[in-house]
Amino acid sequence: MKKRNMSEFFKDKQVILMAIFIIISIISISTAGIEQGLDLKGGSLVQLQLEKPVDDATMDVITAVLDKRLNIYGVKDVKVRSAGDQLVIVEMAGATPEEVESLIGNPGNFEARIGNKTAEPALTGVDITNVEMYEITDTEWNVPFHISIEGAAHFAEMARGKGGEKVYMFLDDELISDDPPSLSAELANGVPTTQVMVTGGANSPEEAEEEAKQIYTVLKTGSLPVKVQVVGSSTVSPELGQQFLEGAAIAGLLAILAVSAIIYFRYRKPILVIPIVVTCVSEILIVMGIASIIQWNIDLAAIAGLIAAVGTGVDDQIIIVDEILTSEKTTENRRRTKTKINVKKALFIIFASASTLIAAMLPLAYVGFARGSSGIGTLAGFAFTTIIGVLVGILITRPVYAKFVEIFLK
Question: Could you tell me the CATH number of the domain that includes residue 143?
């Protein structure tokens, strides 16, 4: 009888699906690892002060530009939030203030002048409509981009008859290259063109890529409406983050043990305890695997969301057990039929409850992502992880637990 039950259980489609997800999660975590947030991995916190107070609309533009600029530049787990009308706080995991201070502290105003450093700008950042990926050739680099029709007409007028003259390119009033390129003859014929290219050189391929990357990022994200100044910075120690992680792991283990004890004393059936522990661990492992695959940063807010999702899973398992135990009060012939009916009833209740929770989390996740991780980005991380955890539970692990109880609790 036990062998037949085991065979029936492990041949179930939901059990096979959960096993596949667990294997994929283990492979992804062991190979790609898990991205940790600022409070776990360590990083930097930079304070920026605007040159003057701004209104809410301008502040939203500033935080959005900074957030987009840092993400394009490659800084992970960026949180940009305003503090009043003249202060912006930037949190960055796994980065030092020096690595990004020059990037976030500049407005990003681009200008190109032909023939003379003090001449009227022939092209400005306002004229740029699209920026293509930069290209590196040894120590030389170039950043192709497109400009508006009005900008192309103005550039053609300023460049007419000036073939061979130097094109001085400035970023925030700083000359981009000490050896500026010359204006080609095809750009000096007075015919407007919307395709332009910024070029430059460096002492090494690494420096060339760094310069090109910075130019590309600033041109891609646009200019800040006001000047900003770095007024303070600090570093979050990864050792402190490790203490947070260890504390969260201990708290999670204690929670699982407490829940197991409560389940045992409630039902007096040892067979129910181990599957609940296995289900909780499986949910955590699969969610961590998903986070590893999509490179989602796990921070304290995400851990809180994961605990909330696992907590709802324990509630769901109690509902499943209660529904199935009612079938034991029937005759032997009707027990199996009634068990299946009660399992479906329990899963219906679980799906309804999960839908309500997801509906409550979606606004937090949407607003957080729409603001580009500024303002309430932490709550967005909590909401997103909770949603993923609940979906993993109702679609993968909790049906497996229901199948286990249905087969073995007889």
Answer: 3.30.1360.200
